[in-house]
Structures are given as structure tokens and as C-alpha cells.
């Protein structure tokens, strides 16, 4: 029986692992199918205090730090959590393992919200992407669209503007209300970024006899481009939880709906700002609550 199983190897989960390991609690991190979650996608991380480098470098550092306190990391995902009569939990994994634990920290983060218009699925991986830092490289000297108007969309547009020839941002509102001022200013200063406000895409199709895509807007304007990067928000990764745990409309969980011994941290927690600094803060907080809970049980 483990003291704590942490679901997720993003900054929230790894921070929780550092705290739990350092408190001498037997700690296992279920990393999911890849290490680092969304942070691993960040090519240049500029706003996490004390860090200058990529997101993946930060994650590798955090993992080593957690392992130095005997936390273990396994690459598997939870598919179910069973509540046992004695107040413990059994975590069922996609590799068939069933792991018993006295407490669980949910730090499974979020994923990009999928675009549900004609052509979006068909052209996924063939021009439609959800990760500018992963796929931007393929659009060197080309024309791309970015869909969305929050920090992620503007960051993607800035990243792509250094690689692509032209970047058009398509946003359904009249201004980038939700984005940070520093990003809005940088976008405005870029000569190869054009902002199309008050519009949205209704379909994506292939341009006949070419590798190009045609993005059709709500007012039937056809925009020719080589790639479309979608940054329209996130949904929490909580499919492994039973219906009995209440979630908000983004699938996120409030700490006060969880049973004793279960804690939540990072982007999967409702009402937090989705940033590394908050993931780290809530990871620390969830771990300290878990440690206090474990000490009170013993
Ligand atoms: C492209 C991009 C750029 C960003 N840029 C910045 C930035 O510049 N600054 C900033 O502060 N933030 C940035 N963010 C946001 C930041 O990355 C997130 O807020 C942060 O990673 C959230 O951390 P987390 O640990 O809560 O979740 P995540 O990073 O989402 O990690 C979730 C983890 O859970 C795992 N998982 C999922 N389901 C399961 C399961 N069933 N079982 C076990 N494990 C599971 C995943 O594999 C992953 O390891 C960016 C995000 C993206 C996508």
C-alpha cells in the first residue's frame, strides 16, 4: 500500500511529488503517456520565476528533484479510481495494474479543445495542428492561420511569425480582451501578423491540385493557407473519474467536492489560472494537505 499516488507528471504533479517524497511518504507518479504535460510543449519559457530555458528542461529538472527524494515515476495512465470501504483507494492503470494507496493527488491537467467544424478532423495532422511549437517548423516561409484570441493563440502567432511568411489570427471577438497586454503589444508590432476580428471559421477544405487549405469564414470569405493552428481553449483530463465526482463545464474539479484522502492540483482544478506558477503552487498545497491527512491517519 502506497502513501500517495499522484496522477500527472506536469508541474503540479511533480511539485506534489517533491513535497511528498521529501516528507518520507511512499510516492508514485503516474506520468500518463508522456512526461511533462503541456509544459513539455513550451519551447521558450519566459514567465516562470527563476527559470530561463525550455519547458521540458524545467520538467526534467523537477523529475530529477522528485526522484532524489525517492518518488517513483511510471509511464502509465489511470483509467479508474475505486473507493475502498477502509477509506483507501485502488487506482486502475491502462497497463492492467491495480495499485492500492492511502491518498491520491489528481494533477492530470488539461488538453487543447478540439475544433468541431467541417474538415477539422479530416485535416488534423495534414495542415490542422493544436501545437505551434511542435509543428510550426514545417511551415517555414508559408502562410498560416491561428484560431483564437487568448494568451495561447497570441503566443502561437508570435512563435509562428518567426518561422512562417505570414500569420493571420482569426478571432470571433472585436479585440483580444483575454490576452495579456505584453502579448497584444508584441502581436501589434509584428509586420507579418494580421488580425481578423469579429469572424470565425465554418469549414476547412483542400485547395484542388495543391497542398494548400481553404479556410472559409462565417461570412463566406475564403482564406488560402498552408496550415491552421487551433488555440481555442482547454478541457480538463478527467475521463478516468466516476460521474459521482462533480465537475464544472470544462471538466475541472473543485477541491471541496473530493472525498477524504483525495486532492487536486494544477489545470484540472476549477477556478485557477492555467499557468505553471499556479500549477506549482497548487501542487505544493495539495501535497501539504495530503501529508497532513496521512499523518492524521497513522
Ligand atoms: C503551448 C503551450 C504554451 C504554454 N505556455 C505557458 C507559459 O509560457 N507560461 C506558463 O506559465 N504556462 C504556459 N502554459 C500553460 C502551462 O503549461 C500549464 O498551465 C501547466 O502545464 C499545467 O500544469 P499541470 O501539471 O496542471 O498539467 P499538465 O501540464 O497538463 O500535465 C498533466 C499531466 O497529466 C497526465 N495525465 C493526463 N491524464 C492522465 C491519466 N488519466 N493518468 C495519469 N496521468 C494523466 C499528462 O500526461 C500530464 O503529464 C502553456 C501551455 C501550452 C499548451
Quick synopsis:
The chain is 24% helix and 26% strand.
Keywords:
seven-stranded mixed sheet; FAD/NAD(P)-binding domain; alpha/beta; binds flavin-adenine dinucleotide; 2 domains; about 25% helix; single chain; about 300 residues; five-stranded parallel sheet; elongated
Outline: elongated
Structural class assignment = alpha/beta
Unreliable spans are none
Strand percentage lies at 25-35%
Helix content: 10-25%
Q: How do the SSEs run, as a string of H and E?
A: EHEHEEEEEEHEHEHEEEEEEEH
CATH architecture of the largest domain: 3-Layer(bba) Sandwich
How many E-type strands?
17
How many domain modules?
2
Q: Summarize the biggest pleated sheet.
A: 7 strands, mixed
- Roughly what is the average pLDDT, rounded to an integer? 94
Q: Span between N and C termini?
A: 13 Å
* Ligands, deduplicated: flavin-adenine dinucleotide
If helices are DSSP runs of H or I spanning 4 or more residues, what is the number of helices? 6
| The CATH fourth-level homologous superfamily of the largest domain | FAD/NAD(P)-binding domain
Radius of gyration equals 21 Å
Assign the CATH class of the largest domain: Alpha Beta
Q: How is the CATH topology of the largest domain named?
A: FAD/NAD(P)-binding domain
Description:
Helix content is 24%, strand content 26%. It has two domains: 2-111 and 234-297, FAD/NAD(P)-binding domain (3-Layer(bba) Sandwich); 114-230, FAD/NAD(P)-binding domain, CATH 3.50.50.60. The strands form four sheets. Strands 1, 2, 3, 4, 5, 6 and 17 form a seven-stranded mixed beta sheet that branches. A five-stranded parallel beta sheet has the order 8-15-9-10-11. It is built from six helices and 17 strands. The chain has helices at 11-22, 55-68, 132-135, 151-161, 181-189, 276-297; strands at residues 2-7, 27-30, 72-74, 78-83, 89-93, 98-106, 110-112, 128-129, 143-147, 166-170, 193-196, 201-206, 213-217, 222-225, 227-230, 234-236, 262-264. The protein is an alpha/beta fold. Helix 4 (151-161) runs parallel beside helix 5. The chain is elongated, with a radius of gyration of 21 Å. Flavin-adenine dinucleotide binds at residues 7-13, 30-34, 37-39, 41-42, 45, 47-48, 77-78, 107-110, 133, 152, 155, 237, 240, 266-267, 274-277, 279. Flavin-adenine dinucleotide is lined by residues 7-13, 30-34, 37-39, 41-42, 45, 47-48, 77-78, 107-110, 133, 152, 155, 237, 240, 266-267, 274-277, 279.
Amino acid at each position: 500500500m502506497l502513501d500517495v499516488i499522484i496522477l500527472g507528471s506536469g508541474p503540479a504533479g511533480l511539485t506534489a511529488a517533491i513535497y511528498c517524497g521529501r516528507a518520507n511518504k511512499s510516492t508514485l507518479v503516474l506520468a500518463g503517456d508522456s512526461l511533462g504535460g503541456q509544459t513539455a510543449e513550451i519551447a521558450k519559457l519566459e514567465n516562470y520565476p527563476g527559470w530561463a530555458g525550455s519547458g521540458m528542461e524545467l520538467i526534467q529538472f523537477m523529475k530529477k528533484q522528485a526522484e532524489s527524494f525517492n518518488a517513483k515515476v511510471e509511464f502509465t495512465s489511470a483509467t479508474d479510481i475505486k473507493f475502498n470501504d477502509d477509506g483507501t483507494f485502488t487506482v486502475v492503470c491502462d497497463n492492467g495494474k491495480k495499485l492500492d494507496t492511502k491518498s491520491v493527488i489528481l494533477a492530470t491537467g488539461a488538453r487543447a479543445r478540439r475544433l468541431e467544424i467541417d474538415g477539422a478532423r479530416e485535416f488534423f495532422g495534414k495542415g490542422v495542428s493544436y501545437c505551434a511549437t511542435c509543428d510550426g517548423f514545417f511551415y517555414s516561409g508559408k502562410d498560416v492561420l491561428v484560431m483564437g484570441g487568448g494568451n495561447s493563440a497570441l503566443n502561437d502567432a508570435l512563435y509562428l511569425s518567426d518561422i512562417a511568411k505570414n500569420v493571420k489570427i482569426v478571432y470571433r471577438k472585436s479585440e483580444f480582451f483575454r490576452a495579456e497586454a505584453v502579448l497584444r503589444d508584441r502581436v501589434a508590432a509584428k509586420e507579418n501578423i494580421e488580425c481578423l476580428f469579429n469572424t470565425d471559421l465554418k469549414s476547412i477544405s483542400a485547395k484542388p491540385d495543391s497542398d494548400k487549405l481553404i479556410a472559409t469564414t462565417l461570412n463566406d470569405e475564403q482564406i488560402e493557407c498552408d496550415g491552421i493552428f487551433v488555440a481555442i481553449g482547454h478541457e480538463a483530463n478527467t475521463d478516468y473519474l466516476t460521474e459521482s465526482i462533480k465537475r464544472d463545464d470544462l471538466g475541472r474539479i473543485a477541491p471541496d467536492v473530493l472525498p477524504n484522502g483525495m486532492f487536486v492540483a494544477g489545470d484540472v482544478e476549477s477556478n485557477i489560472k492555467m499557468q505553471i506558477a499556479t500549477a506549482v503552487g497548487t501542487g505544493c498545497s495539495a501535497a501539504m494537505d495530503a501529508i497532513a491527512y496521512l499523518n492524521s491517519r497513522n
